[in-house]
Protein: DUF1587 domain-containing protein
Amino acid sequence: MKIIKIGPNFFGRSIVGRLALVLFLVAPCRAETGGEAPDEAALRADAQKVFKEKVDPFVTKYCVKCHASRAKAGINLQSALKNPNGESATLYWKKAVANVKVHDMPPEDASKFPSEEERRQFIESVGKIKYLAPRDPGPFVIRRLTKTEYANTLSDLYGVDGSIADSLPEEVVGEGFLNSISPLQSELFLGIANQVVDQVLAPEGKAPTAIQERFFGDPPAQGSDLRKEARKVARALARD
Structure:
């Protein structure tokens, strides 16, 4: 069994410490991946209410007799009720609305017919189905800082000289700044972050520096659960 000796700068040399130094690389996109906006939540709540009170009863009463498992005219509204935002359901809803609007649904030989007001409410309510599912934020793209922003951030957070970022290529002014990050650029950023680790952390066996204490707090006691201690540090950094 391997015994891990816990020194004053244990977490500074751990993976947690290294990740802490590059958190700001993804910080600019945190707001974009945050929780749902209040207006979106309200739209979804309204759509759920309308679907339950207007769409479902209309379809059940006037449509599923013909458009359930046998899917007359290729429209299966029974499956659309179960998964109203599904890819096939979207097509079914469009066809249903078009037919209800011109009075082709229900057909002339049906036993029940909706009133004009019911038709209007159904058509209007189907238009809200798109709000039942959370808005697709699109592909997640890690945002990066410019060379100057990165150097200034390192200097502000860790007190290192901004020239540590000089190995990064200059931004191409003529083509504009692209804030996506390539694999090669990731390696450059991480390489600089590792240099910062070596500069700001105390040598093994020495007392922790002020930077270490600010980021990681007191070193864990001998015999403590290292996974729990690492999670504490990670949660504290995430809150900051």
In short: Residues 1-17, 26-34 have pLDDT under 50 and may be disordered. The longest helix spans residues 38-62. The chain is about 50% helix and 0% strand. The radius of gyration is 29 Å.
